[in-house]
Design brief:
By secondary structure, the protein is of the alpha/beta class. The strands form five sheets. Strands 10-9-11-15-18-19 form a six-stranded mixed beta sheet, with helices on both faces.
Length: 887
Amino acid sequence: MSTQQPNFIEEILMVLAVLESGSDSTVAALLHRVTAREVDERLLTERLATVAAVEVHGNSLSLDATVAATRREALLERDFLHFRRLHEAALAILAPQLHGNPFSLEQQWLRVFTRLAEALLNRDTVALRQLTETWEHVALSDEAQPHYTFYRALAAFWSGNYAQTLILIDAVLAAPTVALPLRSRAINVTALCHYYQGQWQQALDGYRHSLALAQRLADKVQEGKVRLNMGVIYYELHDYAEAEAQLVAAETLFHAANATTWLASVHHELALIYRQQGQWQHALAYFQRCIDHRLAEEADELVGMALNNVGEIWLLQENLPKAQEAFQQALARTQTPTNRIDVLTNIGLYHEVGGEATAAQQRYAEAMALVAQTERREMAPLLHYRLGTVALAHDAQDIAWTHWLHGIELIEANREPMHEEALKISLLGRWQQIYEAMVALAVDRGEFAEALAYTEQARARAFLERITASQNRANLAAQQPWTVPQIQARLSGETALISYFATGQPGTNAALLANLPATSTAIRRALLPPARLFAFIITNSTVHAIKLPVDLEQLQAQYFHRATGRLRGVTVLPGRPLPSVRRWQMLGRQLLMPLTPYLMGMRHLCLIPHGPLHYLPLHALVDVDQLTQVAGTTVSYAPSASILCQTEQAAPLPAHQAATAEEPSALAIGVNAEGLAHAEAEATWIAQLLHGESLTGTAATATQVLAALGEYRLLHFSCHGHFRQRDPMHSALQLHDGELTADMLLRSASIVADLVTLSACDTGLNDLHPGDELMGLTRAFLGSGARSLLVSLWPVHEVPTRLLMEHFYSQWQRGVTKAMALRLAQQFVATLDFPQLNERLASYGVPMAEHAEWIATFQQMTSGDHPFAHPYYWAAFFLTGHFGSAQ
């Protein structure tokens, strides 16, 4: 008896730890159920009377709450199966007592049920479903029922039944007495369902709501869970910086709460980010930490998820034996359909990389069947893309076309309800490969109009929608890309669009692809469509497409600085000779001269760059008159054909904006600062020429300017400009009292101008986000209502800039179009000789010493008689948006 007494007491204490309190008969019944030991209830009370943590009141026993929690946690970590058996037995013994008994007994049953459900949630979701099914008809009050229903919803969620999950969660949220902690968790689960169904906007909205509730409750663990989920969605949208920020915040919260299970989940997601950045060893180390923790918890499902991602790393390095081993282990451990979709997709890719098309197709088809079963729609576009690539590899073009078409239809359907611009950009950026593949296939099939339509779907969509919204057009149809017939209907017989489109660009996978081993050629081919550059030539009656002999990767290496992304040859030192333009001319022969047969007789060309071509002065690479065989051919730009058409059909200007002395139509803003001497004079001259108004010097404040932007047909800024590549929406114009940023314009400005001129450095530079979305001042002004912009690609000396601007407005006022006025102004600057320059400087009142110094500098930088003949001085400026309209 003496040797068995301590073990028996320990067993009783563990039973009490699960029950927390109960009658001696309940404790004895539970002890008998789990040990098969017959227990005398009277002896039970006697033996526990001397145990310090136990309180005995008649036939009622209770264990100190802290001691009970410590014992349960230790058992859970040491022996999960025994923990489970104890809780299942406790539920079975307590359930019959719920009828007609006090509320406290129901709460006791609910606490036992909740502990077991939470433990199963992280270890065995199949068992969680079985648990909720077992107690489906248990008699619970209206106050307790929502808690049980919540776990039924979680079981449905892990079974991949998102529709049923949402029905159950709606029932939880509809209950009149739902406490805030449960409401926060329920909203978080709703958001998870939306995420898996590809409803990204609803998911983020739900997470933010749940996060606010968790913060209100100061529930650090729940806040960490929501941030973890937000990190996952940002990762899936390829916004790795925001994903890492959310995950690190979650990691801090879980560390503080000692929530080790959730820490393992964070480490799993951080490992994914490190993988995307090509940090293979760092990612493997984090995955291993996660696996070790999950093995200790006996959480097979979660181990399988981590092993699947380890297999991905080996696959990316084309270590096929290790990849196969990891995937096989992952498949053996994952039981839920949601997770098996990921594993089967990766196994399909493994077979595709290994050249086993039939096996790849079979695995992708298995995954697609589970997608249909679980409603996990966010995976369907990827599987359609993969099935299409396998089909195309075997020349089954029709099958590939069908898969990619279905994938695009799903992407468009998921995108439609979104209202956040950043979310729209991320979603379309995530799926660029499927659009690129469709464009390339359509071109190969000679279906040029179809191909062009898909390029319009793939580029600058959020930008188009912002412009449409700025025109107060609420009709959703107006926010769709323009169709090819609609685009052609806007073109005159003498106008051609040249729309470039590149495929096989790394996009958000750039870091991952850059860090692939040189030997990983097969996986690279599987992840990206072939790298090709197409040029589409669109007139009012024809669409042609050709593949250009240009390698964009080599182009970027040769023509752009790797560190800054800036064009080489346009950052010059005063007094140093300017670089030769021969390299530019060679590039023009590659990008433009092959288009000559389709451009004959055209008087205006509108260029629509793609990718790095946005940073090139395409109009200066060749003599455009040679392309068209028409003297005086003009050039403009647009972010997309749809955006061009949208700016063309902007609402008519208010009647009071006609150019009269009483109602000036122009506002010119000028600020001399940090070395600028001509900005204010330039603004004053232009305002006088156009019978407009000016804000210069101390009058040119951000408040004054923002208040005036919606009143004028023409806006001109001459000041410093700042392009910030790392934070492009804080690119800015320097005013007297501070900066006017792109973000300020989008938040506060309503512009009705036909033209906005930014006579400042770098104002035409934009950071390219996924989906060829331009982020910077171009987006800000066009997105605030401007029909067209005159902007610059690089910093230019203020003297040739002032000359160009004055001549531009002089020509525009005489009745030519904006595009022609710019051409004439650029020709004027390029052909100006030194005597004419001397005369202009004298008219500007430049002091003689400064005048002579400038002339000497310009003479050192050129070998000819024309100081500004080099494109550096005039080619930086280009017109984007609506290109017509005489002043």
